[in-house]
Amino acid sequence: MLNWTDMDDAARGATLARPIAPADGGVARQVADIFTAVERGGDATLRELTSKFDGCTLKDLLYAPSLDTAQLDNNARKAIETAMRNIRAFHQRQKPQDYEVEVQSGVICQRRYVPMQRVGLYIPGGTAPLFSTLLMLVIPAQIAGVGEILLASPPRENGRVDPVIEDVAAMLGVKTIMPVGGAQAIAAMAMGTETIRPVDKIFGPGNIWVTEAKKYASALTGGPAIDMPAGPSEVLVIADGDANAEFVASDLLSQAEHDPLAQSILLSTSIDLIKAVTAALDRQVRALSRSDILARSRGNIRMILCANLDEAMAISNAYAPEHLIINTANCRDLLLGVCNAGSVFLGPWSTESAGDYASGTNHVLPTAGAARAYSGLGVDAFMKSITVQELSADGLKTLGPVVSELARMEGLDGHAASVDLRLSKLKGAAS
Asked: Model confidence over 304-356: pLDDT tens digits?
């Protein structure tokens, strides 16, 4: 247990520091090499790299998913359909609306929202095939009206992606799967090949190779945008003395099982609760299957004693957690003080796992402190806005002299001339 009051600024900073993966410049160099190889070799390179990294000989670089009803029993289908329904209901309200303003007589300005034409979605397929992330990406893309969705995920030996990922893709109506993983998948979506057309934006989590590849792709001239900076998962729990220690411990472990670099932090005003949570962690961890990961990530769990809940909220805002759980008697009151968080979970029954799967909110969230500037994924991430202006002749008569004056103040007489020519034309027509 750490006492926030007893720590100096240096100790506090060290306590809230995120775990950092060992620096490996080799990853960046190899990702750059993969992009160069894909750019030069196209489809053939994708097949070669897939054989090398995944041990799979690809027959088709693109295929349409099909639903294997034997793969998903009735309970699984119903669970997925419930999640789909809730996610769709919540995200449907997010779609931005066009608007128009007449800023002065004869000068009309508009903002139009249009969907992206083609996006690429990357879904990991390793130790935990994240079919839930497919729900979180495809549904808002469909609500936005995206024209084409390309799903990329690592292949199995049969040249197709994880069967549950494929089944969920089919249930969602995804039409095209690229069974390619890693940096080579990102390169193909970013630059295109003979078979793959490049996308406008790339979404989805991945390992260090995928993360580095997304950064590389977004820096290409004319390359795609990416969703947001990505890092290991994290949760911060604010709990008072009335919180259930077993619940709190389970919340800390649910994030710790994601990744050896995942971080879980408890902020509490109660010494007794911190002691009880520590004991509960010892009991619960023995029953979980991802023991290898938990053995390493448990070292990233922090238990911090706070003087009061206001102090706890100030610490949380400084940390800017991906997931924030407020398990206190006055959780709604504390919510008003939240400035920096990806997603918030209120009260003892709002397990973070609900948001990961089926409550309706999106689980693609900013990590590593990015919640200070980034929001969680929503429909707007799949859209862009275009502004429009229309000036009538009378509008230009009143606004034109202002524009001309401002342009000359900046020394841009060409800008001023484009206005003055029109004003002169209008003056001549009126005489």
From this structure: 999 999 999 999 999 999 999 999 999 999 999 999 999 999 999 999 999 99
- The C-alpha atoms of residue 42 and residue 252 are separated, in whole angstroms, by 44
Confidence of residue 227 (pLDDT cuts 50, 70, 90): very high
Residue 23 pLDDT > 70: no
Same domain assignment for residues 162 and 252: no
Compute the average pLDDT of residues 160-174: 95
Residues 184 and 263 in one domain: no
Tell me which of 166, 257, 322, 352 is the catalytic residue.
322
Rounded Cα gap, residues 220 and 2, in angstroms: 45
Which of 323, 352, 390, 405 is an active site residue? Answer: 323
| 173 and 319 co-located in one domain | no
173 and 249 assigned to the same domain:
no
Using CA of residue 9, residue 14, residue 20, residue 24, what is the dihedral sign? positive
pTM of the model: 0.93
CB atoms within 10 A of CB 253: 23
* Residue whose C-alpha is closest to residue 302's, from 16, 4, 48: 16
User: In which domain, by residue range, is 74 found?
Assistant: 25-227
Q: Structurally, how many domains does the chain consist of? A: 3
322 in active site? yes
Q: Which of 3-12, 64-73, 332-341, 398-407 has the lowest mean pLDDT?
A: 64-73
Per the annotation, the verdict on 148 as an active-site residue is: no
